[in-house]
C-alpha cells in the first residue's frame, strides 16, 4: 500500500515537472498568434507595394533587357471539335511564370514568409493572349484569378480556362483522319526585346487529361518562334502548342461505312436477278435512293471544304 502511494506521488511530481518545463519554454519562446502572422503579411504587402506600379513593365536589367515569360499548359479535356465551324473547344490549365525584380524581399525579416498570394490587379501581368482565338476576347487571363509571388521575385500565374480556337480541318481521309490544331500564345503589345515568350519543355502536360469518346490524343508538343509581322519592324515571340488528334472510327464504321458496303453489295445482287422476277428495277432504285441519303448524311457531318474532298464522298 505504501509502495503504491509512493509511486503515484512520484508520477504526479514528474508530470508537474513536465508542465513546468512546457510553461517555461512557452514563456521564453511564445508561439506566433494569428494576429501576428497577419501583421507580418500586412507588413510585407506594405513593403512590396510602397513604390510599385502594376501598370509599368518591370525593368530588371541594367541594359533594359526583356522579361522571360514561360508559358505552359495542362490539357484537361477536348470538349468538342466542331468540323462545320472549324473550331476547337478545349479545357486548358494555363500556366505562366516570370520574374519581377520589384517583388523581392528578405525571408528572415518577415518570419520566414517565402511566398504570398496576391490578386492579379495588384501586380504587373504580361498581356499574353491566344492568337488563334475564335471568340471576341480570351476570358480569364486577367480576371478573377490570383498569382503566387515568391521571395526571389518569381511569379506563378496559373488558372483554368475554356478556349475556343481556330482549327483548319482536313477531311481527305475521313473517317480515318488526323486533325492538327495549334494554340499560339504571345504578347500583343510587347516585342521580344521587352517580353520574351518562351517554353521550358517540349511536351505539354497530359497528366490530368480526360479521354475523349471521339478523338484520340496523339500529340501535345510545344515550340517557340520569333516572327516578324507586316505591321511592325520588330519581331514578336510566341509559343505554339500543337494538338494532334486521331479520330476514333468505330462509330463512323458502324453508322456509315458498313451500311454503305451492304448497300453496295445489294447493288450487285440486282444484276443477278432475272428480269421476269419484277424486282430488278425496284431494287436498283432503292439502292440509288439509299446511297443518296448516305451522301446527305456525310455532307452534314463534314465542313464545306473545296481544298480537300473526302475519299469517301
UniProtKB/TrEMBL annotation:
Domain Neurotransmitter-gated ion-channel transmembrane: 256-310
Signal peptide (UniProt feature, chain positions): 1-35
Family: Belongs to the ligand-gated ion channel (TC 1.A.9) family.
Entry GO CC: postsynaptic membrane
SUPFAM superfamilies membership: Neurotransmitter-gated ion-channel transmembrane pore (SSF90112), Nicotinic receptor ligand binding domain-like (SSF63712)
Any one Pfam family match given in the protein's UniProt record, by short name: Neur_chan_LBD
Domain of life: Eukaryota
Subcellular location: Synaptic cell membrane
UniProt GO MF annotations: acetylcholine-gated monoatomic cation-selective channel activity; transmembrane signaling receptor activity
Main localization category: membrane
Protein name as catalogued: Neuronal acetylcholine receptor subunit alpha-10
Topological category with respect to the lipid bilayer: Multi-pass membrane protein
Domain Neurotransmitter-gated ion-channel ligand-binding: 46-249
Keyword annotations: Cell membrane, Disulfide bond, Glycoprotein, Ion channel, Ion transport, Ligand-gated ion channel, Membrane, Receptor, Signal, Synapse, Transmembrane, Transmembrane helix, Transport
Keyword set includes Signal: yes
Record organism: Octopus sinensis (East Asian common octopus)
Keyword Mitochondrion: no
Transmembrane segments: 256-274
Amino acid at each position: 500500500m505504501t509502495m503504491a502511494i509512493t509511486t503515484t506521488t512520484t508520477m504526479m511530481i514528474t508530470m508537474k515537472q513536465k508542465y513546468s518545463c512546457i510553461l517555461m519554454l512557452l514563456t521564453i519562446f511564445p508561439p506566433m498568434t494569428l494576429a501576428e502572422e497577419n501583421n507580418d503579411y500586412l507588413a510585407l504587402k506594405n513593403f512590396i507595394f510602397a513604390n510599385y506600379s502594376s501598370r509599368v513593365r518591370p525593368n530588371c536589367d541594367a541594359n533594359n533587357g526583356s522579361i522571360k515569360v514561360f508559358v505552359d499548359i495542362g490539357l484537361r479535356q477536348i470538349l468538342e471539335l466542331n468540323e462545320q465551324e472549324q473550331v476547337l473547344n478545349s479545357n486548358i490549365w494555363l500556366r505562366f511564370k516570370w520574374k519581377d525584380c520589384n517583388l523581392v524581399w528578405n525571408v528572415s525579416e518577415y518570419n520566414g514568409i517565402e511566398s504570398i498570394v496576391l490578386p492579379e490587379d495588384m501586380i504587373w501581368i504580361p498581356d499574353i493572349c491566344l492568337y488563334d482565338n475564335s471568340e471576341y476576347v480570351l476570358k480569364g487571363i486577367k480576371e478573377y484569378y490570383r498569382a503566387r509571388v515568391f521571395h526571389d521575385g518569381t511569379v506563378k500565374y496559373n488558372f483554368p480556362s475554356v478556349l475556343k480556337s481556330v482549327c483548319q480541318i482536313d477531311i481527305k481521309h475521313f473517317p480515318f483522319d488526323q486533325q492538327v490544331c495549334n494554340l499560339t500564345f504571345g504578347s500583343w503589345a510587347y516585342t521580344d526585346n521587352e517580353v520574351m515568350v518562351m517554353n521550358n519543355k517540349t511536351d505539354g502536360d497530359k497528366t490530368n487529361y480526360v479521354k475523349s469518346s471521339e478523338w484520340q490524343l496523339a500529340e501535345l508538343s510545344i515550340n517557340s518562334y520569333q516572327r516578324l509581322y507586316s505591321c511592325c519592324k520588330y519581331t514578336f515571340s510566341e509559343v505554339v502548342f500543337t494538338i494532334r488528334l486521331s479520330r476514333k472510327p468505330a462509330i463512323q464504321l458502324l453508322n456509315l461505312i458498313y451500311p454503305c458496303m451492304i448497300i453496295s453489295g445489294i447493288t450487285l445482287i440486282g444484276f443477278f436477278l432475272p428480269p421476269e422476277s419484277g424486282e430488278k428495277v425496284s431494287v436498283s432504285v432503292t439502292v440509288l435512293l439509299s446511297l443518296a441519303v448516305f451522301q446527305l448524311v456525310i455532307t452534314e457531318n463534314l465542313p464545306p471544304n473545296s481544298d480537300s474532298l473526302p475519299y469517301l464522298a
